[in-house]
Amino acid sequence: MKTTSIETTNIKTMNMETTRDDVLARVRRVLIDSLSLNIEEDDLRYSESLDQVMGLDSLAVLEFTTALEKEFGIMIEHEKLELSLLRDLPALARYIQSVAAAPPASDTPA
Amino acid sequence: MIAEHLERTAAKFPDSIALIDGETRISYLELTRRVTAFAQYLKQDLAVAPGAAVGFFLPNCWEFVVGFFAVAKIGAVCMPFNTRWRASELESYIRQIPISAVLTSQQLREPWDRLSEMIPPERVLVVDEPAVANAFTHESSGQTDPPGHRPLATGIALQLTTSGSTGRPRVAARTQRAMLAGATNVGQALEVRAKQRFAAVVPFYHASGFGNSMFVPLLHGATVIIMKQFDPRGFANLVRSHKIQVLLVSPFILRLVAGQDLDADVFCSVETCLSSGAPTPPALTKQWQDRFGIRVRQLYGSSETGTISIETADSPIRTGAAGTLVPEVEVKVLDNEGAEKALNEVGEILIRSPSLMSTDSGMPGYLDESGLNARVFTNGYFRTGDLGMLDDDHNLVIVGRKTRVINLGGTKVDPAEVEAAIEKLPGVRQCRVMGVMDRRQSEIIKAVIAVDDEHARSRQAVVEHCRQLLAEHKIPRVIDFVDDIPVDVTGKQLITWGAN
User: Fold this and answer.
1) Measured distance CA(B392)–CA(B355) in Å, rounded
2) pLDDT bucket at A26, cuts 50 / 70 / 90
3) Rounded-to-10 torsion of CA B303, B307, B309, B314
4) How far apart (Å, rounded) are the C-alpha atoms in residues B155 and B151?
5) ipTM, interface predicted TM-score of the complex
6) Between chains, do B473 and A62 touch, taking CB under 8 Å as contact?
7) pLDDT given for residue B500 in this prediction
8) How far is CA A95 from the centre of its chain?
9) In chain A, which among 70-89 make CB contacts under 8 A with chain B?
10) What are phi and psi of B301, to 5 degrees?
11) Is 2.40.128.90 the CATH classification of the domain at A7-101?
């Protein structure tokens, strides 16, 4: 399937100075907001697997990943996303940084 | 009856494309061939008897469609299951309604391996494994039709699983005749044409996805373009590349797509966009109108009744609007004493329709629920549990719900089932589970838990415990711990949409 024909515009470029801790904190906030979890940010430890704090069904995953795309101005390839990556906040933050650093996927032909 | 109807459609449009699923394109003629081949396999190789239920544990895919028509052709019953369910949840259904075989895929088969005592491995039909895949395309004999009698119009064709609020699963069954009548009426309401292009993205295990995005179009010679797994960009690409004309979506899908940066003309081929499963917030409808020039139309219905009503494209955007009744559907709005309400007065919505569920003895009602059926029917009208009214133009407006059932964007969750699961956690004394609206106007699950033991006062403990017993989507998002459950704790009243 062609995934490149829908151009995204107005992508916010992520500040490359952003530290990993900032990204991590934003990922955590997006998680709590997008899924309406009643957890205080400080009560969700980064070392915790998301499995321990919520149900990760396919709709929750979509809700969370599209909110991440908006927050960071990136595109996440939903088909290729491993659930294990989503469960692990630090790994997810590293992934987001790597996606944000790479050239936008829509510039490369399918 | 259903299979014959498809064959008549195929005789009219043999070379028209019936199904597109990724790289697979199946014409109407080819569809009927595959249906015949698979019907033979079910009947001759697996001895699936008329009236026997066949489980469907599949994503939306062409094999689901062929499997359904093949099952109908031999007078057996298609029973779709939510693919998110765990083995324990599937078990509760198949204990109640035994199944003769189940169609699944390599990716989804795992729960069935654990249920091998109830359904032996040779009756778990993995559609993407060669042995079963071949059965779709190879007729096992020269005969075009499997021998035996024709399925009866009054025989059950579809059994939909649904949730009440009593901790016990329910099954709503429809006869072949009821399905055809419902599809004809919806086809008329939507003016479905041959070769019109429909997107099938809402799962077929939902009554609306099954009926309105697959069954209805195929009976009218339209083309069904299948999306296995929704994601917002993939969806927009599908609509654009296949020039989709009819979309059936849910508020969830509308919201995620509206959140994307998309060109205003992405959906320029769309003539009809229907939203079902849950009420569509007016702000979302307006957003689609402004951004894409599409008037999203609410479709209201249920597993028990089939499609009830559909908004017209020119009606004013209004909270709770559920639209105009489809042909042959009758509605009553009753107060608690059973007296009819006047226009614009809120009461419980009751429905009578040719597509109403029926028991195997042909009476209206859930399967094997005689006690319950006496309560949910009044003079042949089904009590939906929804509160609403008819406005001056006799359009339905839904303002709330009478029962505790939680509606997660079309997937019904029984709060009693979640409560029972949580109350099994040591240290939990009592639990109340309810649906609450988040700020996006999506219903989510909230649990209020009274604990005796401080070890149980832990979100992690509750979530991990729930995961052993419940599908992921049934795990509460909002979890509150209290010393005692307040007597007035209720969910529905917190939902503040609608009422005048």
Assistant:
1) 26
2) very high
3) 120
4) 7
5) 0.83
6) no
7) 25
8) 8
9) 70, 75, 78-79
10) -175, -175
11) no
Say if CB B317 and CB B286 are below 8 A apart: yes
Strands B53-57 and B101-104: parallel
HEC states along B210-244?
HHHHHHHHHHCCCEEEECCCCCHHHHHHHHHHCCC
In degrees and rounded to multiples of 5, residue A78 shows phi and psi of -60, -40
Instruction: Compute the distance between CA of residue B359 and CA of residue B368 in angstroms, rounded to an integer.
Output: 7
Phi and psi (nearest 5°) for B424?
-80, -10
What is the C-alpha separation between A67 and B458, in angstroms, rounded?
A: 27
Instruction: Please indicate if any CB of chain A lies within 8 Å of the CB of B283.
Output: no
Q: Does A105 touch chain B (CB under 8 A)?
A: no
Query: Which tokens belong to B425?
Result: 């956690």
| Confidence check: pLDDT of B218 > 90 | yes
Alpha carbons A63 and B69: distance in angstroms, whole number: 34
For the stretch A60-93, pLDDT in tens is 999 999 999 999 999 988 777 888 888 899 999 9
Closest CA relative to residue B85, chosen from B500, B488, B473: B473
Rounded to whole angstroms, the Cα distance separating B359 from B475 reads 32
Nearest of B172, B493, B488, B140 to residue B360 by alpha carbon: B172
Alpha-carbon dihedral angle through residues B456, B461, B466, B468, given to the nearest 10 degrees = -120
Q: Which two tokens stand for residue B191?
A: 């003016």
Amino acid at B242: H
Residue B336 near chain A (CB below 8 Å): no
Contact B84 A66 (CB under 8 A): no
Q: Output the CA–CA distances (angstroms, integers) from residue A72 to A8, A102, B247, B438, in the order listed.
A: 13, 13, 30, 23
Closest-CA residue in chain B for A11?
A: B261
The strand pairing partners of B386, in sequence order, are: B401
**Count of Cβ atoms closer than 10 Å to residue A52 Cβ:** 16
Is B457's Cβ below 8 Å from some Cβ in A? Answer: no
**pLDDT digits over B436-459, tens only?**
999 888 999 999 999 998 888 999
* β B53-57/B272-275 pair status: unpaired
